[in-house]
Specification:
The protein has helices at about 10-15, 35-50, 90-110, 125-135, 145-165, 170-180, 185-195, 200-210, 215-220; strands at about 5, 20, 60. It is mainly alpha-helical and about 220 residues long. It folds into 2 domains: about 5-60, no CATH class; about 70-220, no CATH class.
Amino acid sequence: MTTGISLVRENTVSMEPPRSLWVSFPLGRPLGIPLDASFQHRVIKAALNLLSNAKGPVLEDFLEDVPAIDETSMTTCPVSFPKNFDDESWKARLVKEFATLQPWYEMSLRRRNNRTLVGISDLPPGKNIQRLANYLDKNQRPDDIQWLKPAIEDLKAYYQEAMIAQPGDYDADTLFNIFWQETQLGAGLLLICKQYQQSDNPDLQLIARMLAPRKAVSKAP
C-alpha cells in the first residue's frame, strides 16, 4: 500500500496514483513550512491517514496553507531563459536550453544531498528531451504513451529542481509562469498537448490533461 504528496493536482488526477494528498505549497516544499516540525508532522500524518482507504485512487486536499512569502525576501529563479535562437529547430532549442539548466540542476542536487524526483523514466532526461524534440520537429504526436508519461514527469522535475537551485523561498505562481511561458520545454509541451486535445479519442484527450495543467493551456498563445 502506498501514499504520497501531490504538488500539481492536474498531474495527479491524470496519473491516478493509489492515494495522494494534494497540498498548496510552493515547488520544492512538499511538507510546507521549513523547520516547522509541528506543521510538517501534520502533513505527513494526513498523507499516512490515506492508507485507511483500502481502494483507490484517492485524492484528498490538505486544508492548511503556508503563510504568504514576504516579497522582499523572495528568491528569484537563477536561470535566465533566452528568448531568441539562431536555429529554429526544436532539437537545437531544447538541447541548448537543457544544457543551460544542467549546472543549476547539479547544484540543486548537491544542496538536497542527492534527493531528486527525477528518475521514473527508463531514459535519462537528456535522451528524453532529444526524443521529444524529434517529435516536435516532425510535427508528430508522440505515439509511445508508456514512454511519454514518465519522460515528461522527469523533465518537468528536472526543470523545476534547477529553477530552485538557490536556497530560499520561491513564489509558486512565478515559477509556474516561467516554466510555461518562458521555457522551450513548456512551449513544446503545450504544442503536443494541443495535438492530443484535437483527437477524437477520449483516452488521448486525457493525455492532454496530463501534459499541461488547464491554467497553462488557457494562457497559451
